[in-house]
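Example (one chain per record):
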Amino acid sequence: MKRTTNLPLITTREQFHVNSPLKERILIMRQNKLFIAAIALCMVACFTMGSLPSASASPPTPVPVTITGVYDFSTFPNVTGTFTTTGALTISGASTMAVGLNVNGIRAHCVVTLIPSDGSGTIIIDQQCQFATSMPAPYPTGQGKGRWEIVGGTGAYANLNGNGSLTMPGNEEAMTGVIYY
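Predicted structure:
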């Protein structure tokens, strides 16, 4: 009958037939060299991959655009109107605008939805407006100015990007800027 022991599996010199401290040290040095070589190989691979040119597309080209909306403010803060565009876009149609004023009415956040009459999709624009500063000539003081950015769209405008400046003379929203193609 064979005798077994419940000793833990511990690597000992006898298992690897290492019977001298010198041989043990040589074995450890070989293991260390292998480990260092593996690390060096991984580092070379990482640095090599990082230095390869990426296959990214060229940066988008900005094309000038003007978007003019005319609104009926009798249903403020949710107003409706029409819009026309020139430049990078040549569409027109219906428009809605949800106006969110701050407490003192000096700043507003507006969400404009442009709905082209050709049914090609929609364009959603965020506007950040301020009314505390005067407008450039020929607009009267107190009208307002701001920034706009296309934040979404559907149909033909699902991936449209653009931004620019904004003036608000009378019942108009006059947006000038660029569309990126």
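Caption: Residues 12-56 form one domain.
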